[in-house]
Each structure stands twice: as structure tokens, then as C-alpha cells.
Amino acid sequence: MIKKKYAQFVFIFLMSFGMSLIMSGVVVAVNTSLTDGFFGRWFYSWMFAFPVALLAAIIIAPMIRSLIDKITIE
């Protein structure tokens, strides 16, 4: 099991993984259609998209959390 203190990073990792997988698949499908080699193009695209999404989420998450704290009330 993973310790609770790592929960936020695990969440960011899994969310980035899933979102980059879906988004890269949609973009590749829209741009090149579902022809032969789609899964290879999708995987190639995702290999670049995932690290970018992970880094973006790590950088942006604290800013978004701070914004949410400012605009919400109990």
C-alpha cells in the first residue's frame, strides 16, 4: 500500500496519466483518423504528452488549490 502522505502525488500522477491518454488519443484520431497504425501513433503521441501533463499538473495544482481556497466558503 501507499502511504497517505503520498496521496496527492499519486492522484496527480494517475490523473495526468488518464487525461493525457484520453486527450492524445482524441487528438490523434481527429488529426489522422482511425486508420492502420492508429495505436502506434497514439502511443508515440502519449509518450510526449504524459510527461508534459504530469509536469503541468505538479506545477499548476498548488496554484489551483490556492485559488479554490480563495473563492470557496465553508
Task: Produce the secondary structure layout.
Blueprint: H1 7-32, H2 38-71
Describe the protein's architecture and organization.
Helix 1 packs across helix 2 (38-71). This protein has one domain. The protein has helices at 7-32, 38-71. The chain has 2 helices and no strands. With 74 residues, the chain is mainly alpha-helical.
What distinguishing features does this structure have?
74 residues; mainly alpha; 2 helices; 81% helix; 0% strand
Q: What would the average pLDDT be, to the nearest integer?
A: 94
Total domains = 1
Helix proportion:
over 70%
Profile the largest sheet. Answer: none
Oligomer: single chain
Classification by helices and strands:
mainly alpha
Beginning-to-end CA distance, first to last residue: 32 Å
Strand content: under 5%
Per DSSP, the total helix count is 2
Shape: elongated
Low-confidence parts, pLDDT < 50 over ≥5 residues?
Answer: none
Task: From the alpha carbons, calculate the radius of gyration and give it in angstroms.
Answer: 16 Å
Task: Describe, in short, the structure shown.
With 74 residues, the protein is mostly helical.
